[in-house]
Amino acid sequence: MASLVPCPHCGMRPKEEFTIKGAAIARPGSHADANEWMDYVYLRNNPLGTYDEYWHHTSGCRRWLVVTRDTGTHEISASCDVTVAVKTGVAA
Amino acid sequence: MSEYRVTRRSALGSNALRSERICISALPEGHVIQVMGKEGGPDLGAFLSEKIGGGAKFAVRIAAPFQWYVVGDRALSPEETDTMLDTLHPHAAGVDQSHGRVRFQVEGAMVERLLAKGTGTDVSVEAFPVGHSTMTLIGHIAAHVTRVGEHAFEIMVLRGFAESLWDDCARMAQEFT
Amino acid sequence: MPGSKALHGRGPLRSPWLGNCRVQVPVTDAPRKRRTQSLGHYGVHHVQGRNTTTASNAVTVKYIARLAGQEMRKSLLQRRSVFPVDGEITVIQKPGGGKQVRTARYPAETHPLAREAAQNAVDPVRLQPVRRSAASTYKQSVALASCGGYCFTGDFYPGGASYALPVTRQRPHIVQRFSGEKVGGPERFGCRRVRHQRKIFDKKKAERLSYSGCFERHGSNLYVSVSLVQGEFDIPRYPFYTHATKLADMRYSALSIFLNGLRGNQSWKPAWREPQPKSHYDVIIVGGGGHGLATAYYLAKEFGVTNVAVIEKSYIGSGNVGRNTTIIRSNYLLPGNNPFYEYSMKLWESLEQELNFNAMVSQRGVLNLFHSDAQRDAYTRRGNAMLLHGVDAELLDRTAVRKMLPFLDFDNARFPIQGGLLQRRGGTVRHDAVAWGYARGADQRGVDIIQNCEVIGIRRDNGRVTGVETTKGFIRCAKLGLAAAGNSSRVASMAGLKLPIESHVLQAFVSEGLKPFIDGVITFGAGHFYVSQSDKGGLVFGGDIDGYNSYAQRGNLATVEHVAEAGKAMIPGISRVRVLRSWGGIMDMSMDGSPIIDRTSLDNLYLNAGWCYGGFKATPASGFCFAHLLARGVAHETARAFRFDRFERGHLLDEKGQGAQANLH
Ligand SMILES: Cc1cc2nc3c(=O)[nH]c(=O)nc-3n(C[C@H](O)[C@H](O)[C@H](O)COP(=O)(O)OP(=O)(O)OC[C@H]3O[C@@H](n4cnc5c(N)ncnc54)[C@H](O)[C@@H]3O)c2cc1C
Ligand SMILES: [Zn+2]
Hints:
Chain A: This is Sarcosine oxidase subunit delta. Chain A: It holds the Pfam family SoxD. Chain A: One of its GO terms (biological process) is tetrahydrofolate metabolic process. The complex is a heterotrimer of chains A (92), B (177) and C (665). With 92 residues, chain A is an alpha+beta fold. Chain A has helices spanning 34-41, 82-87; strands spanning 4-7, 11-14, 19-23, 50-56, 64-70, 76-81. In chain A, the strands form two sheets. Chain A has a four-stranded antiparallel sheet with strand order 3-4-5-6. In chain A, strands 1-2 form a two-stranded antiparallel ribbon. In chain C, 24% of the residues lie in helices and 25% in strands. Chain C contains 16 helices and 29 strands. In chain C, helix 7 packs parallel to helix 12 and helix 7 crosses helix 15. Residues 286-292, 311-314, 318-321, 323-327, 454-455, 483-487, 491, 506-508, 542, 585, 587, 611, 613-617 of chain C line the site of flavin-adenine dinucleotide.
């Protein structure tokens, strides 16, 4: 048991309870062109530093979250429900 | 047609493991209704316990944001279930999970110590007061845990995993029995 | 002046004409008194031959004669022209020994130091140590610097232009194009003259600056490099060597071990130099991992490109090449993958002879266990694909596996072992020896391996890369190859490229030493666990990546727990084995699980990335194919599927069929 990840609904939870999807990036609209889809599906900024990632609290509340984490230190600075993230423009 | 009849068998039977400091016992396979409210909708807790939980203590548990479980020891007839699900309309939708989820109770002075072996959730009474419930991993199995007394938790788990989780809990309880 | 100390210790020099035999060059062991600032090196395309000779920055003209072996020595002695006092370099092409030989001539006979230098020249074959004082080196360097007031420079590549070095103290690193200078083609026999007469700083300042000269032979080229050393002359630190006989030094061998043993093992030399970067390279490779070093090695050895630098931000072997679990195999399914990995396997099979380096290549077999009918079908298919590609594969049933590995948990209630797919030619290789072996081989062929030098920028001009900004200054290059593994995205972003890659951490573990009981590599098919036993007895094992983007080179305990559980599920007997150490490495996880070896949208920028957790086994072929691409501009036949644009074109190479999610591959 290790590495607690904050869930806005459940509190601190071990990493095992989550499934990680990857970069929290906006999905293009249905009329987006091939380049935009290429960018969305395959290309990643993959930064060193702060990073927004989709985590699913699979063995908990089963909500999709956007977890803001530092890829260099693994420190988590924020975590919110994906609906909140969409509202505040973090992800779409 | 198969020559074998499908017979209903309870997942945990009337298993029980009792000792002074810890006690694990299967609960009746009554009913489990999963209620799904509208995303961003109102808290239906009070409404649910009054309308379909019959006001019973611990009948309604939070499952997730906008989701609840309504549980009870009594098995419902199909008609009763239908009525219950109709009552939810239009506030929420319900799914009968009575055959899908199984409950058992863990109690005794060592109950927090036992659960702490399996879950990363803080189960101390300050962080996890009576009446509070949550979904969490116990070992490798996801389970819905509700504190029903100072030294008592109810654990609800998918039926297929019930025996395994029971065995895990029994093993975790070994040092306390 | 840090010159009062006597110089001792001897640097390695290999005579260009006498193969690997070494001559000794005094270098200092005096610690640096003052930080010198190298302002870059300037090369002269110069002598043809086959072996490697290098000297440190500190080696001044006196050594030319000793360096160069008979042919060149003769010509130099005859001319007594070893000093560039007037800032002029004359390049003479001269036939010698049937080959065309070009030597340097410095029209400076008049200079007393030059005469002294020529007289002091010793025959390299006699291997006499020469004692020199730092003071004399200083004097010579001042003499070198007496071209002060002029920028001393030379970039004599065919068709190349000259560059001038504007020596201002404020901007010491900036190299400007020096216009108005045409350099004749090197093919022409005769005399090529280049004059450097651009006044760039005033006399007064010049006196306080000095040059040090450097003669380096890289593969078929001898370079006369001159770097500017700011302040008083100071000799850069250089590895020390003591006497060694010709024989013992030539190659690693039983004899060399014996002879070195006789001398108390004091005479072993570092396996590669620690050069300062030159100002220009034909090819720069970013990343001194297995792939970068192998690329440089094959560039020099197979493709004749020797003016190459490998730039490594840390030390050689600090990346994944020294962190992996050492497994090599070629049991791939897809047509785009299999021939490449099989080619790599073939290179592994002859690698140690090739490198004269013990990399402990051990073809102990790789066995993938299966636990269900579906998995058996999948492995059967893979085995058949391997056979169709001419790769060895055997499908073992339960009994055969049991005979090999009786201690596995065959009757595991959930995941009983049903059999396995075995590749006997698979196995393990000592990972850091691979890095060292390639580094040594590349270095011997003239490649500069520049450690502790991080690439922090990629300069571009008109759709072309002009060079890299590094923590040691700007270095120009004609071609740039990226082989930065887990840091590929970051390096590529310096050139404005966005890659189909995420960086993830993968952990590895080593247990305490046990008696030998696992012959080969075993992979569990029902959980993330694989294991082999090292020659020291430790179990070397690992599992899956942790699953989140990371650059941290350390992982999560959740994964440790999973790996331990899966390991115990496969081999119940190891439940009490203690883990001695574990670590993490950063994987360049590509979006289809397969690598990229290709050109990029920038004309002279090449990419080698996306190795996921399987790039170690690819090291030789990756190096070879990348070198092929860099040298010839077209993909090697076994690497044609590793195209950068395959994502756009929909031709994914998804061995596992997972789709575009990096952490599932
Ligand atoms: C735990 C673990 C187990 C593995 N097990 C296996 C296995 O069993 N079999 C197998 O085939 N593969 C395995 N791999 C994968 C394999 O190790 C890698 O795919 C492979 O080593 C990558 O190529 P490389 O050797 O060139 O990488 P590296 O050694 O990582 O080389 C890249 C280098 O680039 C340098 N660099 C990065 N950025 C810069 C910069 N800006 N400037 C200068 N230098 C820079 C880094 O410092 C590094 O040294 C494993 C990896 C790990 C981490
Ligand atoms: Zn949650």
